[in-house]
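Predict the 3D structure for this chain.
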Amino acid sequence: MSARLEPVLSRFSVRLFVVFLALAVWAFWPSYFSRLFEQPNFWFHAHGIALSLWLVMLVMQARLIRTHRRIWHRRLGTLSYVVAPAVVVFTTIFVHQRIGARIADPTQLPPGALGSLALMLGSLAAFAVCFGCAIWFRRNREVHARWMVCTLFPLVTPVSDRLIATYSPSVIGLLPQTGGGQSLPIVGFLAADLILVALSIWDWRVNRRRDVFPVALGVLLVYHVCTLTLHRVPLWSAFCTWFVELPLP
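Done. Predicted structure below.
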């Protein structure tokens, strides 16, 4: 990692990850952390534990780089090969259970369900792309570090949605309405996109790099547009019906 990168990006990453972890605990405290023994089944815990481990790992890994403990960073990094796939698998099952429990007829999914599936499955796809790129470029420290930072941005909306709905519900009425019922995530989308725009500008001005953050922004924009529009696409409706009818645990 270059001398220019480490003082700025690593310091920013530690702070960003710590703040986001704190916000995530705050957002999910009423529905999960304060009700650990009231969850419907094992998969709610599997989903929560996997995501919590990922956020904690991001904080620890950024801190290890910040304090120049690269050996421990590499050792802890091997756990990402387990935790990241667990996030994808457990969250997929969690989404399947949540949506399936609310739908009487999977062949007649309402726009709200189609929009919710686009939001949740899209976030997993964007997360998987960012993590996959981080692993692909694991031998290039600067590119790897940037892609690991980007794994955070697909996870913004679950946190922002719950914080707004719980503590500032009046904001919801100010947001544009969408046919898929996904107006609230617009706040999280905007926050993630603005941070990535700022990182893209900084990286170009300071390091003359545009190989990660602008690409990650493009990935997120595809995810965001899909969330707001896929409920109108017949092929997506057919896919969601297939997904909901899968015999998952």
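The mean pLDDT is 91.
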